[in-house]
């Protein structure tokens, strides 16, 4: 089963899903992290036609190797800010559930990253950001940072594939539950 998920992950992560003009502009370098630190990238996507959104989290080790990933669909939620904040919360929940202690959380929503860092919170995401802050207390070390879309392409490609391709899933669980994919290292 894990091999099947890994194949789906690789298929969704192939650069051919991006326009060639975009590929020529992308030059992203991985900066090695301390050995005990994990980097978690999150993103969200919207399918207005089906009136739903989805979130995706990708976990990488200090060398940039993908260790784990999770995705979740949200029916009737198509507000980008709400979905990005839910993706941030889903990231913290995944990290708590997996027992991670030293993490860096990255997302391409500057507003969500800023409000998690104690800036004024828009009313429509106050409860979600409160949840993120409470979950943050579970970690020995946690930091939040904004990254450009080009540094978050893996998460974006996967959440888009998960949202738009009904055949792409880890397993056939209830849509509102997390869909986890454990990848062989």
TrEMBL record:
UniProt domain RNase H type-1: residue ranges: 41-160
Signal peptide as annotated in the record: none
InterPro entries linked: RNase_H-like_dom_plant, RNase_H-like_EbsB-rel, RNaseH-like_sf, RNaseH_domain, RNaseH_sf
Superkingdom field: Eukaryota
CDD domains referenced in this protein's UniProt entry, alphabetically: RNase_H_like (cd06222)
PANTHER family per record: BNAC02G40300D PROTEIN (PTHR47074), RNASE H TYPE-1 DOMAIN-CONTAINING PROTEIN (PTHR47074:SF61)
Name recorded for this polypeptide: RNase H type-1 domain-containing protein
Species of the source: Hevea brasiliensis (Para rubber tree)
Species classification: Eukaryota, Viridiplantae, Streptophyta, Embryophyta, Tracheophyta
